[in-house]
Every structure is written in C-alpha cells, then in structure tokens.
C-alpha cells in the first residue's frame, strides 16, 4: 500500500509539471489519480491484514494525498481561467486598436487617401496626382 501511495504522489507531480502537456490533459491525469487514491482508500478499509493504528495512518496519508491532488486540480483550473481571460482581453484590445486605426484613417482630412485605402488603385493614383502634382 505504501509503494502505491508513493507512486501516486510521483505521478501527480509529473502530471502537474509536464511542460508539453496541456492544462486539460494535466487535469485529466490528476482526476484519474484522484480516482486511484479513492479506490486505494476503499481497498484499505477492507484490508484486514493491517493493525488499526497502521490502517489509520494509511488512511490519513491517502486523504492528505487526495487533498493535494484536489488542490492541484483547482490551481490548474484557476490558471486556465486566468489565461482565457487574458487572451480575451488581449483580443478585445487588438480589435479596439484596429477599429481606432481605421476610424483615424477615415477621418484624417490632411490625407486625401483616408478611408480610400481599399479602393481601386487606379482611383488612388488619380487622387495622388491631383493632390501632389
């Protein structure tokens, strides 16, 4: 039982620190780990080979490991939420900046090409010749 518990902790640590894994796969691995720990706790309750004192120590160890895994899951979920919020704000800022640039280009009276940048190139050439000739 102790070997399984130690392996579980090692697996949780590697799942939470894997740089190539996505947050979703890390959470899935931790949830699987949590299920394994829960099963170990059930198996321990049925185990008659351990003394009551040893059984209690094992239960406490498994419960602490389960709490640790749950905290890791919560931390990953919070990080994913923060990352999504940051991406959303960055996207909104970029969209707003693009709209501001377009509005400025269309309203600049000194630039005869303002607001006409997407028009036919032949028409733009005529505007440039008339203005700058």
Q: Would you kindly provide a written description of the structure presented here, covering whatever features stand out?
A:
This protein is mainly α and 133 residues long. It has one domain (2-96). It contains four helices and no strands. The protein has helices spanning 2-17, 23-46, 52-107, 121-132. Helix 1 (2-17) runs antiparallel to helix 2, helix 1 (2-17) packs parallel to helix 3 (52-107) and helix 2 packs antiparallel against helix 3 (52-107). The longest helix is centred in the middle third of the chain and has 56 residues, at 52-107. The N and C termini lie far apart (90 Å). Residues 1-20 have low confidence and may be disordered.
Short description:
This protein has helices at residues 2-17, 23-46, 52-107, 121-132. The chain is mostly helical. Mean pLDDT is 76; it is low at 1-20.
Order of helices and strands: HHHH
Radius of gyration: 31 Å
The tally of domains stands at 1
Estimated helix fraction: over 70%
Major beta-sheet overview: none
Structural class: mainly alpha
General form: rod-shaped
β content, as a range?
Answer: under 5%
Query: What separation lies between the terminal Cα atoms?
Result: 90 Å
